[in-house]
Amino acid sequence: MDLKSNHTSPVLADAAPMNNTRLGIHSALLPYPHSGSPFSPSLLLTIPRRRPGILDDVRSSLFDAMKSSSPTHEKFAKESSSETTLGDSNIAYCNWMLKYPSALASFDQIANSANGKRIALFLDYDGTLSPIVDNPDHAFMSNAMRAAVSNVAKYFPTAIISGRSRDKVYEFVGLTELYYAGSHGMDIMGPVRPSSSDHKNCVRSTDKQGKEVNLFQPASEFLPMINEVFRSLVEITKDIVGAKVENNKFCVSVHYRNVDEKSWTTVGQSVERILKEYPRLRLTHGRKVLEVRPVLNWDKGKAVEFLLESLGLTNCDDVLPIYVGDDRTDEDAFKVLREGNSGYGIIVSSVPKESSAFYSLRDPSEVMEFLKTLVMWKQKNTL
Ligand SMILES: O=P(O)(O)OC[C@H]1O[C@H](O[C@H]2O[C@H](CO)[C@@H](O)[C@H](O)[C@H]2O)[C@H](O)[C@@H](O)[C@@H]1O
C-alpha cells in the first residue's frame, strides 16, 4: 500500500498549531485513501498549507522555532538586555512568577481549592519527573522521585502522559499502580469503564499484571505509516552528527540536542523533505526535538479528558484535576483545564515562558517536593 502522496508541506507553524487548524472531515487527510475511515470525524484535523515561494521565510522560521524550543538561561539573559547579568534573569524569573506563582509557595491556595474535592493527578515524564539529559535513552527518574510518585498514587488517581511510547515510559517509571498514556496521548491504557467502551478505537485488553484495562489508540491506522517514516528519517539523518531518531509508536521524534547548531537547519529541512510526501503527518516542536505525528485532533488535553471520563470523574464538581508538565505539548492539557475552569496546570520551567498553566515549579526536584506536600496535606486531612 502506498502510504505517500505528493502534497505541499504538512509543516505547521509552530507557535499555536491548534489555533491554525479547523476541525472536520477532509478526505485528503484520511490516513489511507479508502472509504469507511475508522476515525471519528471529530478526530480529523485539517491544516492550512503554506503558500509556495516563501522558502526563505520557511527556512528561517523553522530555524527560529528549533532555536526557541528549549531556551537556556544564557539565551534568556541575552535576549532580555544587552547588558544582562544573572541577577537580571532572576528578576525576570521573579516577575514571571507573579503570573505563574510557585505551586509550592501557593500550596495553601491549591489546598483550599482542593478541600472536599477529589484530586486527579496527571504527570508528564521528560523534564517533569526526570531531568532533561543529552541522551534520551538515559532519561532515568531517581528512586526518590519514583517513591514520591508511588506515594501520591496511593491517595489520588495518577496518570503519566508522555510523548514517549507507552512501553518506554512504563519501562522508565515502572509503577503498576498508575495509568499510562504514550505517544502524546494517542496510546492510553486506562481503567475499564462502560462509558469509555463507547469510544471508537477503544478495546478491552489486559495489562502486564493480567488486569483488565481499556486500550485506546485513536491513531492505530497510522502505525505502518509511522514505521515507514521512521525508517526514512533514520536514513536521511544518518550523516548528521548527533541527530537521533526515536520511534514513539504513533509518533516519531527527531532529536537535535547533540547536533551542532550550524546543522540544525539541515535537520529541519531533512525532516520537511520527508514529510512533503506524507500530508497526513504533521510536525510539532518540543525541547530540541522535532515531533512527527498524525494529523489527528488528539493531544494531551484530549487524553486528560478521556482519562477523567474513564475514571468516572467527568462533570463532577468535586473533582480537581492537576496537570504537571514542562513542554509545549503539555500546553494542550493546561488549556483544557483552564478553559474548562476545572483544574490547575503547573508548568515546570526554570526560565520564563508563556503558558496556559496557573502555577509553576522550577524543575523536577520541585515537582518531587510538590508531590510530597500533596501527600502530607492529604494525610493530615484524613486523620
Ligand atoms: O511528553 P514527554 O514525556 O515530556 O516527552 C517529550 C519528549 O521527551 C524526550 O525528549 C526530551 O527529553 C530527552 C531526555 O531528557 C532530551 O534528550 C530531549 O532533548 C528532549 O526533547 C523523548 O526522547 C521524546 O521522544 C519525547 O517526545
UniProtKB/TrEMBL annotation:
**Pathway involvement of the protein, from the record:** Glycan biosynthesis; trehalose biosynthesis
Keywords associated with the record: Hydrolase, Stress response
Q: What class of enzyme is it?
A: hydrolase
* UniProt xrefs under CDD domains: HAD_TPP
Q: What is its EC number?
A: 3.1.3.12
Q: Which Pfam families match?
A: Trehalose_PPase
- Look up the record and name the cofactor or cofactors this protein needs: a divalent metal cation
> What function is annotated for this protein?
Removes the phosphate from trehalose 6-phosphate to produce free trehalose. Trehalose accumulation in plant may improve abiotic stress tolerance.
Query: Of which family is this protein a member?
Result: Belongs to the trehalose phosphatase family.
The name of this protein is Trehalose 6-phosphate phosphatase
Which gene is the coding source of this polypeptide chain? LOC105160593
